[in-house]
């Protein structure tokens, strides 16, 4: 590993199926000199938005960006434009979000050829995500082969799940032969948010039991006991669990045989149906909760039903994880929908007063980007909103790993 002692910055790359989010974080002074994203990759109208530090110095351009490699080049150009290029001596490492780490990776990992090969082996179980992560890693390594690159896995936080929560009730030999089990995702977010929730309650993570509801485009719930994940709603792939923007979440697996046998659909057709044409978009044509709420206000029935299905599933998971944990200190909402949609939060806990769950309408209506309680003072269980910050968590874990490497080498030299 290289990097001088004054290399205090980490570039975080979060490559999604059609977007790359990037942030440059300074681990010494806590600033974020660069923040931005490339979206709609592969379309004619791709967009590069460089938000700049704290929203200052925003730049935006539109034009075709054919693939993730080109997107990474665009990110490098944006950084160079601000004098923050990848050749900067201040750069200590690049941290990559990697969605599927299988069973091998339960901690942030320095990327080697072997690690990359293992991430590639997991593509079949994260087809929307791992290929993008791999391109991000390859491109970044080509641009800065000397710099440590670290993978931070979505699955890592969930490796503490007990065997009875992680296993499906299917033939053990088949399951083991094909490594079929529940891995869980969004772990970086669940870890960060559950820790911040403990802070908000004035407690140590070890002292509290929390249910985290990460509701973005992808959505998942987790039950966290004393800082360790004991159950989560996503499974072998990020398809299981909650209703999402475009994914069905839980479904009778027989639906898939039925579609193949009766509707003549291929494996790929079913895959696309459940991952891209289901969830909110499949139910009502929109996957953005803002648009769905607007349509409900106008009396649109399909939007209303989509909302009700979404919330009903959410409520079932709150109940299930309440039972798993036995005692719950907080139910915490995070990510795009969880942080911004007061109606979703209100509806998700409506009728759960007997469980100690109540939302205060005034507190819930407040818009803010700081962690906050939305339950009344006297509530038995706190209901909270905690904005997630996967990039900060990835940067911290990356810097800790690289820093440890530097110290270790320092001692050895
Ligand atoms: N002001 C808002 N009100 C309601 N929902 C919102 C708002 N802003 C964003 N969202 C929802 O958040 C989603 C994106 O969440 P986000 O966590 O950014 O997703 P991802 O990281 O998976 O791309 C949008 O699709 C939309 O449904
Ligand atoms: C794992 C997953 O669903 O990620 P995202 O929400 O970024 O699609
Ligand atoms: Mg997300």
UniProtKB/TrEMBL annotation:
<comment type="pathway">
    <text>Metabolic intermediate biosynthesis; acetyl-CoA biosynthesis; acetyl-CoA from acetate: step 1/2.</text>
</comment>
<comment type="function">
    <text>Catalyzes the formation of acetyl phosphate from acetate and ATP. Can also catalyze the reverse reaction.</text>
</comment>
<dbReference type="GO" id="GO:0006085">
    <property type="term" value="P:acetyl-CoA biosynthetic process"/>
</dbReference>
<dbReference type="GO" id="GO:0005524">
    <property type="term" value="F:ATP binding"/>
</dbReference>
<feature type="site" description="Transition state stabilizer">
    <location>
        <position position="186"/>
    </location>
</feature>
<feature type="binding site">
    <location>
        <begin position="288"/>
        <end position="290"/>
    </location>
    <ligand>
        <name>ATP</name>
    </ligand>
</feature>
<dbReference type="InterPro" id="IPR000890">
    <property type="entry name" value="Aliphatic_acid_kin_short-chain"/>
</dbReference>
<keyword id="KW-0963">Cytoplasm</keyword>
<protein>
    <recommendedName>
        <fullName>Acetate kinase</fullName>
        <ecNumber>2.7.2.1</ecNumber>
    </recommendedName>
</protein>
<dbReference type="GO" id="GO:0008776">
    <property type="term" value="F:acetate kinase activity"/>
</dbReference>
<dbReference type="GO" id="GO:0005737">
    <property type="term" value="C:cytoplasm"/>
</dbReference>
<comment type="subunit">
    <text>Homodimer.</text>
</comment>
<keyword id="KW-0418">Kinase</keyword>
<dbReference type="Pfam" id="PF00871">
    <property type="entry name" value="Acetate_kinase"/>
</dbReference>
<keyword id="KW-0808">Transferase</keyword>
<feature type="binding site">
    <location>
        <position position="97"/>
    </location>
    <ligand>
        <name>substrate</name>
    </ligand>
</feature>
<feature type="binding site">
    <location>
        <position position="390"/>
    </location>
    <ligand>
        <name>Mg(2+)</name>
    </ligand>
</feature>
<keyword id="KW-0067">ATP-binding</keyword>
<feature type="binding site">
    <location>
        <position position="14"/>
    </location>
    <ligand>
        <name>Mg(2+)</name>
    </ligand>
</feature>
<dbReference type="InterPro" id="IPR004372">
    <property type="entry name" value="Ac/propionate_kinase"/>
</dbReference>
<keyword id="KW-0547">Nucleotide-binding</keyword>
<keyword id="KW-0460">Magnesium</keyword>
<feature type="binding site">
    <location>
        <begin position="336"/>
        <end position="340"/>
    </location>
    <ligand>
        <name>ATP</name>
    </ligand>
</feature>
<feature type="active site" description="Proton donor/acceptor">
    <location>
        <position position="154"/>
    </location>
</feature>
<feature type="site" description="Transition state stabilizer">
    <location>
        <position position="247"/>
    </location>
</feature>
<dbReference type="GO" id="GO:0006083">
    <property type="term" value="P:acetate metabolic process"/>
</dbReference>
<feature type="binding site">
    <location>
        <position position="21"/>
    </location>
    <ligand>
        <name>ATP</name>
    </ligand>
</feature>
<dbReference type="InterPro" id="IPR023865">
    <property type="entry name" value="Aliphatic_acid_kinase_CS"/>
</dbReference>
<feature type="binding site">
    <location>
        <begin position="214"/>
        <end position="218"/>
    </location>
    <ligand>
        <name>ATP</name>
    </ligand>
</feature>
<dbReference type="InterPro" id="IPR043129">
    <property type="entry name" value="ATPase_NBD"/>
</dbReference>
<keyword id="KW-0479">Metal-binding</keyword>
<comment type="similarity">
    <text>Belongs to the acetokinase family.</text>
</comment>
<dbReference type="GO" id="GO:0000287">
    <property type="term" value="F:magnesium ion binding"/>
</dbReference>
């Amino acid at each position: 590993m290289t990097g001088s002692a004054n290399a205090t910055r980490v570039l975080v790359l979060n490559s999604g199926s059609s977007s790359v989010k990037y942030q440059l974080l300074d681990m010494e002074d806590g600033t974020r000199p660069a923040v931005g994203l490339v979206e709609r990759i592969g379309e004619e109208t791709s967009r590069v938005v460089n938000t700049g530090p704290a929203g200052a110095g925003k730049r935006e351009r539109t034009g075709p960006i054919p693939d993730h490699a080109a997107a990474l080049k665009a990110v490098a150009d944006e950084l160079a434009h601000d004098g923050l290029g990848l050749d900067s001596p201040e750069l200590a490492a690049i941290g990559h979000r990697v969605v599927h780490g299988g069973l091998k990776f339960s901690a942030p990992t320095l990327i080697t050829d072997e690690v990359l090969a293992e991430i590639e082996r997991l593509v079949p179980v994260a087809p929307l995500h791992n290929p993008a992560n791999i391109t991000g890693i390859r491109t970044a390594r080509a641009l800065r082969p000397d710099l440590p690159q670290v993978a931070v896995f979505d699955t890592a936080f969930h490796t503490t799940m007990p065997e009875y929560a992680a296993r499906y009730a299917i033939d053990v030999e088949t399951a083991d032969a094909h490594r079929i089990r529940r891995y869980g995702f969004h772990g970086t977010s669940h870890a960060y948010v559950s820790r911040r929730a403990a802070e908000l309650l004035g407690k140590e993570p070890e002292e509290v039991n929390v249910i985290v509801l990460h509701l973005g485009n992808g959505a998942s719930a987790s039950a966290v006991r004393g800082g360790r994940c004991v159950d989560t709603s996503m499974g072998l792939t990020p398809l299981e669990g909650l209703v999402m923007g475009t994914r069905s979440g839980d479904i009778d697996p027989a639906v898939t045989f039925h579609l193949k046998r009766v509707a003549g659909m291929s494996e790929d057709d079913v895959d696309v149906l459940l991952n891209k044409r289901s969830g909110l978009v499949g139910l009502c044509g929109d996957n953005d909760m803002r648009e769905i709420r607007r349509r409900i206000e106008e009396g649109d029935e399909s939007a209303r039903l989509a909302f009700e299905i979404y919330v009903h599933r959410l409520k079932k998971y709150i109940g299930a994880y309440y039972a798993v944990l036995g005692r719950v200190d907080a139910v915490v909402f995070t990510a795009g929908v969880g942080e911004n949609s007061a109606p979703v939060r209100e509806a998700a806990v409506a009728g759960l007063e007997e469980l100690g769950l109540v939302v205060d309408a005034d507190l819930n209506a407040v818009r803010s980007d700081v962690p906050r309680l939305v339950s009344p003072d006297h509530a038995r269980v706190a209901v909270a909103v905690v904005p997630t910050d996967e990039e900060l968590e990835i940067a911290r874990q990356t810097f800790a790993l690289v820093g440890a490497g530097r110290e270790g080498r320092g001692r050895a030299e």
